[in-house]
Amino acid sequence: MLGGAAALISLLAPAAHDPVPAAASKPAFTSVNYAVAVDESASLAPDDMKAEKAAAARIAVGDVSSASHVTVFGFAAAESGDQRAVDPVCPRTTLDAAGRDSIGGCVGKLHGRKKDEGTGTDFPSAIRQGVHELSSGTDPSVPRVLFLLTDGQMDVTGSPQYGDPAHRKDEGERQLDLELKNARAQGVQIWPLGFGPDPDKAQLDRMAAGGYQKGCVELPSALPTADKISGAKDLGAKLEKVFAAAHCLRYQPGSSPQLPPATMEVGISPLATVGSIVVDKSDPKVTITYIDPNGHQVPTSGSYRKSHFELAGAGDTVEALKIVDPVPGVWQVKAEAPEGHRSLPVGVSVLWQGELRGAITMDPPSPQAGQKATVTMRLQTREGYQIKDPRDYAGLRVRSELTGDGFAAVPLRLTDDGKGPDPTASDGSFTGSVTIPHSANGALKVSGTLTASGLSADTRSESGLVAPDVLPVSGTLRLPAADAHPGDEVTGTLSVHNTGKTPHTLRLSVADLQPGLVSVTPAEIELTPHDSGTKTVTVRLGPADAFGDRLDDDGLKLGGTVTAVDTTDHDRTVVRAPLSVTVTPEPGIWDAYWWAFLIGAAVIAAVVAVVLAWLRQRRGRLDPYGLVLQLVSEDGDVVATHPAGHGHKQWYEFAVVEPHRSPRIERRNHGRYAIQRSPEGGAWLRERGAGRTRLTAHGTVPLADGLSLSLGEETRSTKSRRNRPTWGSRPRTGRTPTTPTAATEDDGTSTYESYR
């Protein structure tokens, strides 16, 4: 954010082909010293004052560095000897966990001025106070930022320190110019935020342009600008965009605000090394739960797997979960609230910083003078994975140049537009071409620097030598783009030619990747004089543990480089070939044996169908429906006839009613008797407490009271059951219905008409 940014770049940028640091290492990020000046003048309505206080609190808890400092003060105007223009409320506070929690309390002391407190707007005093807080006893290499929250309406007409009333306005303008110049000299950026119905945009722009203008990176997005906050709904998103620009952070909004209970989502880039999920709860009673892209609920303090967490503002209307080494992907934010606290929406966003790395290649690695070479710089995460989403590097600036012996530096233009030497647009590979000067006579070096707001700068270089007319050893490595699982191997071919009279040794290695992700074999290849042929090169992926939580169903795309160096010829690079492998998780049982599951499911379905058919057939063979039950007297006369219906579990239960006067059979649940069809013919009669008795088609079984039971003529069709006509339907044949038979419904208690 200051001139110290160059030192930061040189600190963070590794030398060419330096090992990529492990993902679990804690990144070092620039801290910020900033002050927040809050307008308390009478020109602001109570709601605007409330919005300013919320903005001040959000600025503090949203910072991603625990080494940052903040000072918060209110200002208006001193309009008598016992009044003061500035109200200090939060002294310089380190934004570690304890400091973040203390900010909400002291910000609450801000208040709108009453008439006896001085109600004007004294910008010169506010800027003077902010510059003093930011420059006294602080490291000048640490960025200094003053947020000025105001309606932009300067009013010092009631302030005696500005001299005669007739000249106070002009004197205020003069002192404002002096304070802006002092801010610029002290390296203090001024970011004005306009509140109220009609903030003075011209005045806000003037103050933004008057302070220090060099940002954390040399990009337009890092220049101080003024912005207007249009009400409470606009506060969160607008403030975070400004906050991100002032601190060179990335801002990513989440899903639309929702009323609790609700689950919202927000994405964290694979480039992020530290970030804050900011939740605007609107009501401090709302409680928040955070779930990472792998479905794990994470703690709000301490470490979980490779990430470290720190929560600030849990008891306030805005809270922020700071995460070091966050798992990339879509995070879930669950909001819950008790009854009576569910009427205000909850919003979510993320502010983050990250590391963007590049892998640079020159093809051929050692070109001849006058030969055209293609230079490619591929964007990667710090572990070496290729970047899938172009939005992650939006606003990127790529600078490249060719230097070497015998010629002046040649600037290169690298693009990712799919034109000229660049094969594919927006794939994260920036490509250009350069003709090696004819005067080149020794070492060559092509370098590229990546710069983007919110992403630490990275410089990469590739060294080579101007090749003689005939190279002793040349080669081409072909590695196919592949989809693989952890532990898999990808095989390529290395075509090599040794035209010399001496043996040469080639050393193979993988660059631009975190150690442990990939290995290459053989490590060395021996070439005899005049050796020419094709060698097999195998790239082996590391185990699943090497990829950690970043390996999900979408996979990871490795973007390393396989090199072959001629150790016999001054370590001259013979081959630099890009490695493009998409790593996906090892398939589960279903993915590996889905065909077996389908065959098994088909077999099971067939068996179930056969069993069900057998059960249906068995039930049909036992179903008593259609049996005609006859009561037979001691004289052998049939005194009553009763058709059986469908039974309960294939048993039709009944009782004999009035056996001595008018004997008949009636269906009775839990009756004394029950009958079931026998598959061998006839039926089985069950009497409660007496067991079962076989009843043949032409036989009888004695019952109580001198009665016996026999079977009459079967009423059920042996071929198929006739469909029962619907009640109220008309016969399609035009025949008139006959006298109804004694057929029964399924429950055996009601009759229906049948048609001839």
UniProtKB/TrEMBL annotation:
InterPro entries, per the entry = VWF_A (IPR002035), vWFA_dom_sf (IPR036465)
Region of interest (Disordered), residue spans: 413-433, 706-756
* Keyword Cell inner membrane carried by entry: no
- Which superkingdom? Bacteria
The family database entries (PROSITE patterns) matched by this protein are listed as:
VWFA
Residue ranges that the Swiss-Prot or TrEMBL entry lists as coiled coil = none
Q: SMART domains from the entry?
A: VWA
Q: Which UniProt keywords apply?
A: Membrane, Transmembrane, Transmembrane helix
**For this UniProt entry, which segments traverse the membrane?**
592-615
* Composition skew (Low complexity), residue ranges: 725-743
Q: Where is the VWFA domain?
A: 33-246
Transmembrane keyword on record? yes
Recorded protein name is Choice-of-anchor X domain-containing protein
Organism per entry: Streptomyces bugieae
